[in-house]
Structure formats: structure tokens, C-alpha cells
Specification:
16 strands, Rossmann fold, 339 residues, binds magnesium ion, 32% helix, binds threonylcarbamoyladenylate, alpha/beta, DHBP synthase, single chain
Length: 339
Amino acid sequence: METIVASVSPQSLAQAAELLRQGQVVGMPTETVYGLAANALDGAAVARIFAAKGRPQDNPLIVHVDSVAMWETVVEHLTPAARRLIDAFCPGPLTIILPRGKRVADEVCAGLDTVAVRMPSHPAARALIKECGLPLAAPSANLSGSPSPTTAAHVLGDMDGRIPLILDGGDCGVGVESTVVTLAGEQPVLLRPGYITHEQLEQVLGCPVQLAHAVTHQLAAGEKAASPGMKYKHYAPRADVTILQGDLAQYRAFLQQHAAEGVWALCFEGEEEGLPVPAVTYGLAADDATQAHALFGALRRLDEVGAKTVYARCPSETGVGLAVYNRLLRAAAFRVVAL
Ligand code: TXA
Ligand code: MG
């Protein structure tokens, strides 16, 4: 199959919508990361997403809608708490899990009785959903296990020959996947941190939001993940990554001792000056949103330069920093060293 990359235009949107109506898979820009979209009501179409990604069948997908009215068609019903979150943050990078509606293809929910739904704010994603009139199931558009793609070129790198069309909407603004919160249980639980923060969710809901253990910890053997996606290896570059907790002076001193062929630094902008090893940067030390924006591109860059061993500066665990830490921790296979 030939894969076409088309910049977003009325023509390419019409072509993408037609492919989606026919049950095909299309690469779609969103404000978080690129998605691999297919008709969420068509099980055969959704199965093509799993095939293109090489995704385990038991890992459910997020359904993308363009209105509250469409949202109501894919869930059992919108609870008052869900409506509060939607009023505050949607359209935007927030996914809410609720009991599923009957129309959604079983393949989307991977056997669960709940469904994850979000309303993206990216104009191209919204235009595409509107044009085809369908809720779109879309996981991140990477091969399973690779970093999520934040440019159309990243998508092409993973999906060339696997899907017919990628809509190029430029660089994704947020850069990490949406915040995932479940409202399907007794108490809200944050399953995946993102640009909408834990603190913001608690403020709007006016109650505590539990942080799923797996956000910051490796699952123990046999432990059940609240969200199936958390049990898989994720965001992994080929290099061995280790996160170093400590200040910049301690980081420099550690690198002095460990400098060798193939060793790279993953540090914040401006910190690369005077390091004894080459560096890739990911955002500014004092601005976690810039870290989120840059992280996945930096991980892909480390693969391109052939890094063997990577020592990473540690982001904070508050605000958007928690999302950055959560992704980097998985890229590092949970190797963290306190200096
Ligand atoms: O920003 C995003 O959310 C991107 C863009 C494309 O929208 N999508 C994305 O999808 O990151 P994906 O499939 O890579 O991640 C979906 C996550 C997985 O960890 C999955 O296990 C979890 O959401 N999930 C989906 N449905 C769920 C459900 N019913 N219950 C618990 N977890 C669920
Ligand atoms: Mg993903």
C-alpha cells in the first residue's frame, strides 16, 4: 500500500473522510499527538488500527468526538461529574472513561464495559470528525512500543506502507497524550497524566482524584492495571535510558565519571554547554509544558544519533511535569538513580 502525506485542506479532508467511511485507517493530527483514526462504530475498521500498529488486542482505544451530542451517543450517559469536566476542559486534551454505549464497536473497548472518549481541540481533527460524521477511534499513530508521533514525518516513519493517508497538520502543540481520568468507579482515578493536571481535575470536580499506582510505579508481576495500556512497555528508544534525580552540578559530576563512547545526555535547554558527552535537550528546566512538547521528538532523536546509553535530567512530579515524568519513566524502563 502506498502511503500519501497530504497537508490539511478541504480536498484532503474530504478524501480522508471518504476513506474513513469506507472502513480505512487515516493518520490524523490532534493537539496532543498524531492518532490513527478509524470509524469507532465499525469493528472491521477498528481491527485495521490494531493491525497497522501491531497493538495487543486487549488494549482499548480512545473515541474522538466533535460535540457533546456525539459524546452522548457513545457512552451510557454523561454523569454530572463528566459534564463538569467537559465544561471546563473540552474541547481539549482530556479523556474521560465511562460505561460504554451499545453502538461502539466491541473492538474499541477490548472487552471492557467502559469506553474512553475525548473531544480534541485541533481544528483538523474536529473538521475531519465533522466531515465524516462519525466518532473516530484513534490510538497514538506509532508502532506499538515506539514514542508517540508529534509530526507527520514521525507517523510516516512508523506507518509507511501500512495506511493509505496521513493528514499533515504540523507539529502537535501539547506533545504528550491526553490526560485519562476514569469516572466509571466509586471515585475518580487519574490513569494517565497529561496537560490537564491532577490539580486541575481536583479543583473542577471538588473532590480528591486518586492517582493510579502505575502512573509512577512499575506494576508488580501479576498486578492488574487499572488501564490496560499501563502494563505495556512504552515510549522506548533503543538506548538504555536512566533518569538521574539531583541538581545540575550533581548531574555534571555523574556524567564526568560515566562519559564513554555512545553515552548521551538528555537535559534541559542551555544545560548542554560544557557537558563531557553529547546532548539532546527537551524543553526548559523551569517550564514543564515545553518539556512535554519536546520529549517524544527528543527520544526519537536519540535513536537517530545512535545513542547507546542515555542519562536524563529528571522532570518535576507536579503539574504537567507529572505527565513528562510518567513518559520518561517508561522510556527508562523505571531506572531512576538518586544522586
Ligand atoms: O492524546 C491522546 O489521547 C492520543 C490522541 C491520538 O488522541 N491517543 C492516545 O491513544 O494516546 P492510546 O491508544 O495510545 O492510549 C489510550 C490509553 C491506553 O493506555 C488505554 O489502555 C487507555 O487509554 N484506555 C482506553 N480505553 C480505556 C478503558 N475503557 N479503560 C481504561 N483505560 C482505557
Ligand atoms: Mg499510545
